[in-house]
């Protein structure tokens, strides 16, 4: 059972784990990625227009798009970080899977329709259509910060973990990842990024599956693994503790997680760009639906890996083995330990880590090049020739590659669990961006002053709490008991604790990081609305058609018509889709219109499309 401790000598260097086959497998991954990049550099339109380089000619099918969507934010951080989390704190984190339902349905039916129908190239173009140029630039700059910091974590994680246990040269690995990725992204554009994502996602799943199968076999089978994790209290029951400072509960993961998912899958340029590269809107929605099973699979694989790891080491502290207290390094140690003596498998797992990292970094490069081009350069140099713009986009993708190497060094200096660092970044910077888009889409009264003030306040509060939390110790894991009686008693217990805990700033700082997205999103909306009402709310007729999602109308669709009209301050003017506009004001032609049926589905019940025709034509 868990009594005996596995003491092992210091891990041997890479040479011992790695056979020729392993190096070959790893080299094949890099070579195949480069080959895909080269293929798209030389085929099709040969990447000579920004439409092809950044939008994949808007011709993609849903299957590659969906695999690419899950690859964007599933990096080595999740592959290493989630097993480490499960090993230390139990399976509570798995409940984040509940948030995927609404976290994908809302993007599919709210954000995709609005953004796809406006035919934008960058998600931030929406902000100019809805508010003003200033808001667009603020949004773009915020996004650039988010992705650059996140990329640093992504490049650093696999390099750090491999270095800790196999002796792979740390900065050499960082440099190789960054360079390979920069090369194929720059050569092949979004098509190469999406198709390498598909290939890399498959490698990622294969690597995780291999570790789990070998691990289960070597720890004595499924029932033995189950017995050990059960005895070790690692199977967590549903924790319904309402305390928002509790790190992981059903509420922080299942509800807070929805906002995290919305900020990633709803408004993040990396994902929006994939929706927009789909050949039709239906295809984009379908790809979003197809993310659900793959994301659940990815989550399940990494959670099960954590459980198998627990069954192997029974909660031992890794520091006595590794000379580092990092759980992340321990996951790699476990994998190399499991796969020892099985030529090819260590190589497959390293390929899995790098696939996960490369697919994320390439999405980040391409989306960063896109927003810099579309939002910061093109509007000010309208006369730039297409070939020059494409060349510049490539130069941008390459220079972001170099910048991300610098950011990897910053992550090196931070030293928290990488999963928590990544999710904190999503919450602190992605949350306010989600708030900005929500303010625009759901609140027709919000004006541009309110939006800028809201975003500024949101970011300030986010960093205040985020940085404050570093200095406040968060509560660790507590033992789990799954009986109903225990659950009831603990609920009462939690509530009394909730009201007797220290209040003020310290409580504020210890807000669970899983609430960051939601909290920061609401700060932006609240401040945005207050400032908008103070400075004069936007008039209905000034709002660009198609930029508002008739949320109130949709939510109140069960009410009788006259009541709805009273409650819902929207006129039909704001609820129309943008399909009749010839030009969205930014030089992008509206290509194909929507069918009557699609247009009607976008309107709240009771608003006949004939009204829309009168106001638009
Ligand atoms: C984005 C989620 C939360 C979706 O489950 C997951 O992929 C995750 O935890 N990602 C961590 C960041 C990363 O893997 O780079
Ligand atoms: Na990835």
TrEMBL record:
GO CC terms of this entry: apical plasma membrane
Primary localization class, coarse: membrane
Region (Disordered): 598-617
GO biological process: inorganic ion transmembrane transport; pantothenate transmembrane transport; sodium ion transport
Protein keywords: Biotin, Cell membrane, Glycoprotein, Ion transport, Membrane, Sodium, Sodium transport, Symport, Transmembrane, Transmembrane helix, Transport
PROSITE patterns: NA_SOLUT_SYMP_1, NA_SOLUT_SYMP_3
Gene Ontology molecular functions: monoatomic ion transmembrane transporter activity; symporter activity; vitamin transmembrane transporter activity
Residues annotated as transmembrane: 20-42, 62-82, 94-116, 137-162, 168-186, 198-216, 248-267, 288-311, 348-371, 391-410, 422-443, 450-471, 513-534
Membrane topology (UniProt): Multi-pass membrane protein
Catalytic activity field: iodide(out) + 2 Na(+)(out) = iodide(in) + 2 Na(+)(in); (R)-pantothenate(out) + 2 Na(+)(out) = (R)-pantothenate(in) + 2 Na(+)(in); (R)-lipoate(out) + 2 Na(+)(out) = (R)-lipoate(in) + 2 Na(+)(in); biotin(out) + 2 Na(+)(out) = biotin(in) + 2 Na(+)(in)
Location(s), subcellular: Apical cell membrane
Family note: Belongs to the sodium:solute symporter (SSF) (TC 2.A.21) family.
Subunit structure: Interacts with PDZD11.
Record function comment: Sodium-dependent multivitamin transporter that mediates the electrogenic transport of pantothenate, biotin, lipoate and iodide. Functions as a Na(+)-coupled substrate symporter where the stoichiometry of Na(+):substrate is 2:1, creating an electrochemical Na(+) gradient used as driving force for substrate uptake. Required for biotin and pantothenate uptake in the intestine across the brush border membrane. Plays a role in the maintenance of intestinal mucosa integrity, by providing the gut mucosa with biotin.
PANTHER family the UniProt entry points to: SODIUM-COUPLED MONOCARBOXYLATE TRANSPORTER, SODIUM-DEPENDENT MULTIVITAMIN TRANSPORTER
Name of the featured protein: Sodium-dependent multivitamin transporter
């Amino acid at each position: 059972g868990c009594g005996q401790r596995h003491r092992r000598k210091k891990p041997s260097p890479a040479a011992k784990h790695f056979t020729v086959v392993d190096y070959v497998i790893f080299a094949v991954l890099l070579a195949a990625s480069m080959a895909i990049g080269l293929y798209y550099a030389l085929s099709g339109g040969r990447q000579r227009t920004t439409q092809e380089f950044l939008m994949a000619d808007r011709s993609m099918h849903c299957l590659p798009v969906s695999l690419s969507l899950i690859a964007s934010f599933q990096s080595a951080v999740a592959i290493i970080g989630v097993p480490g989390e499960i090993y230390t704190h139990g399976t509570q984190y798995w409940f984040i899977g509940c948030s995927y339902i609404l976290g994908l349905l809302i993007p599919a039916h709210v954000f995709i329709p609005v953004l796809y129908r406006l035919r934008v190239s960058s998600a931030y173009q929406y902000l100019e259509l809805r508010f003003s140029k200033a808001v667009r630039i603020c949004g773009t700059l915020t996004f650039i910060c988010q992705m650059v910091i996140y990329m640093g974590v992504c490049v650093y994680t696999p390099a750090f973990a491999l270095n800790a246990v196999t002796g792979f040269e740390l900065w050499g690995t960082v440099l190789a990842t960054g360079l390979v990725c920069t090369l194929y992204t720059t050569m092949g554009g979004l098509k190469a990024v999406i198709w390498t994502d598909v290939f890399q996602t498959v490698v990622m799943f294969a690597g995780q599956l291999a570790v789990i199968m070998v691990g289960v076999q070597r720890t004595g089978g499924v029932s033995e693994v189950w017995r050990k994790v059960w005895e070790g209290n690692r199977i967590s029951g549903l924790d319904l503790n309402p305390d928002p400072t509790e790190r992981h509960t059903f509420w922080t993961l299942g509800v807070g997680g929805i906002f995290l998912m919305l900020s990633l899958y709803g408004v993040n340029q990396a994902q929006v760009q994939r929706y927009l590269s789909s050949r039709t809107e239906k295809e984009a929605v379908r790809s979003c639906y197809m993310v659900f099973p793959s994301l659940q699979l990815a989550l399940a694989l990494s959670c099960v890996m954590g459980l198998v790891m627990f069954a192997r080491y029974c909660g031992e502290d890794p520091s006595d083995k590794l000379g580092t207290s990092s759980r992340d390094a321990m996951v790699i140690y476990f994998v190399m330990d499991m796969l020892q003596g099985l030529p090819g498998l260590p190589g497959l797992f390293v390929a899995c880590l790098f696939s996960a990292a490369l697919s994320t970094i390439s999405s980040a490069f391409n989306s960063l090049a896109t927003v810099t081009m579309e939002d910061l350069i093109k509007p000010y140099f309208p006369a730039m020739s297409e070939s020059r713009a494409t060349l510049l986009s490539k130069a941008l993708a390459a220079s972001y590659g170099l910048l991300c190497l610098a950011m990897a060094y910053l992550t090196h200096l931070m030293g928290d669990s990488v999963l928590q660092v990544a999710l904190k970044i999503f919450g602190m910077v992605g949350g306010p961006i989600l708030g900005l888009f929500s303010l625009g889409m759901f609140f027709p009264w919000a004006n541009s002053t309110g939006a800028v003030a809201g975003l500024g306040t949101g970011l300030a509060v986010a960093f205040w709490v985020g940085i404050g939390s570093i200095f406040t110790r968060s509560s660790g894991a507590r033992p789990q008991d799954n009986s109903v009686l225990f659950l009831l008693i603990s609920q009462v217990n939690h509530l009394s604790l909730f009201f007797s805990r220290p209040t003020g700033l310290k409580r504020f700082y210890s807000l669970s990081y899983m609430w960051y997205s939601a909290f920061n999103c609401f700060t932006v909306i609240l401040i945005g609305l207050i400032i908008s009402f103070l400075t004069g709310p936007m008039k209905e007729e000034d709002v660009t058609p198609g930029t508002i999602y008739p949320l109130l109308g949709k939510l109140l669709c069960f009410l009788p018509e006259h009541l709805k009209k009273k409650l819902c301050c929207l006129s039909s003017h704001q609820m129309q889709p943008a399909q009749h506009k010839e030009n969205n004001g930014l030089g992008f032609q509206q290509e194909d219109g929507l069918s009557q049926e699609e247009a009607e589905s976008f309107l709240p019940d009771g608003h006949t499309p004939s009204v829309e025709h009168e106001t638009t034509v």
